[in-house]
Amino acid sequence: MIIAERRPIPEIAKVLEPYQRVLVLGCRGCVAICSAGGDREVETMAAALRLARKLEGKPLETGEATLIRQCDPEYLAPLKELAQDYEAVLSLACGVGVNLIADLYPQIRVYPGVDTTFYGANPALGEWQEKCRGCGDCILDVTAGLCPIARCAKNLLNGPCGGSQKGRCEIRPEVPCVWHQIYERLSARGELDRLLAFFPAKDWRPAGHGGPRERVRDDLRLG
Amino acid sequence: MAVLTLGILCCHYTNTAGEEDFKGLPAEIIMKRYPCSGHIEVADILRTFEEGAEAVLVAGCEKEACHNLSGSVRAEKKVLGARKIIEELGLEGERVKMVFLPRLDSGAFMTETKAFLEKILNLKSKEKGV
Fold first, then answer.
1. Closest chain B residue to A39 measured between Cα atoms?
2. A211: burial class by Cβ within 10 Å (0-12, 13-18, 19+)?
3. pLDDT at B104
4. Domains of chain A
């Protein structure tokens, strides 16, 4: 899922300073699952912002709503009416939601309430770890399902760097060296020969280096 | 005479204290009772500040005696969440506190309430440089 984290309240309060009525808009997708932008976080954010403004002697009126998703036009449709009574919308969705609101409703002043951080797994309650960088050219078939782009601090493609020690990363020793893990796993399977295969230099264009990425499936389009 | 407003969020089982018990305290009390302290959210604590409380005490059952097993442990985490936010807003984290109390013991509850009240009064005095 996409992982996000609440932005500091004073930063958000500063952005919203010119407004008296703000709609705090949550999303029940990824950000709800990672406890950054679901119903509960909407309630907390709205209360925190009102309190911040009360302390400044400039009361803020907030509306609270949470949509099923903010990354689909059909689920964003109610926003036009929801936002009518407010001067600005604080979206607690990932950056995708904020962008789509800005694309579809240019008249709505939308601001981000969270920082969108990474694509991650939820290995334990209250813990999220990056597992994929969305580079668009998967090599997990060669690396035993462990991604050296997302999980190696140096994004190395040809084995561990000289700095890893006893299977730990030199940048953050609490993190396992993913190349060490890849080697151990392939070795246990008797598949080390996978690492001997030559492959061309990685094409980074699908990783976003060629501008915004798009995917079109004609068979799914209407009309 | 009330010199400050104190919010108290607690589960039904920690005490049966009422208006009479708070009578002698130099504080206006905003009392909110919940079926379980585990039901108290960060937003509830922030709203109590918004309603005028200068400090908020959250009271739940002793950790091993919660009627719903882990309600008060959950409440403690919400208190930490609220503390982080009020600190971001420039308020002292001490203004929100979690206490674990024996079930239906208003004596222990009042002792904690008075101690917290005193602490916040001291905090206010320091702020004023008294």
1. B43
2. exposed
3. 85
4. 2-118 (3.40.50.2300), 134-198 (no CATH)
